[in-house]
Amino acid sequence: MGTAELHYLLGKYCAEWERKAGLKDVSVLAAAYRAGVPCYTSSPGDSTIGMNVAGVELRGNKLRLNPSIDVNETTAYVLAAKRSGGKSGVVLWAAGVRRISCCRPSRRFRKCCASRNTGRIISCR
How many domains does the structure of the chain reveal? Predict the structure, then answer.
C-alpha cells in the first residue's frame, strides 16, 4: 500500500467522524478524501504514522507501506501533465518536509523520459 491509499482510508474515517460529530472541515485528510485529492508522506519511516505501522507490524499486523508505489504514482502524474500540455505542482503542509521528496517524481520522469519539469512547489508552514 502506498501512502496515498493509507491517507485516503484515514480520510474516509475522518470524514465519517466529522459527520457523526456534526462537524465540518475539521480534518485536512477528510477534505482531501471528499475532493479525491491524493496525500503523500515524504518518508513513511520519518512520520508518526510510519513508526506506528512499524510498531504494530512487530505484533503481527500485515499492513505494509511501500514507498515505490508513491514514487511511481507521482511520476505518473508528472507524465500525464506533460503529455496533456499541462503543468504539475505540489503543496507542502508541514514544517520540516524535505523538498527533495517532492522533486523525486520530476527527477524520475526526467531520467525515464529525457524531459525537463517546470513544476512549482508551494510550501505552507
Answer: 1
Q: What is the C-alpha R_g of the chain?
A: 16
| 29, 46, 70, 108 from 76: Cα distances, Å | 22, 24, 10, 10
- Domain of residue 115, residue span: 67-125
21: in domain: no
Q: Which of 28, 27, 21, 41 is nearest to 98 (CA)?
A: 41
Cβ–Cβ under 8 Å, residues 86 and 117: no
- Per-residue model confidence as pLDDT tens digits over 24-38: 889 999 999 999 999
> 94 lies in a domain?
yes
pTM, two decimals, is 0.70
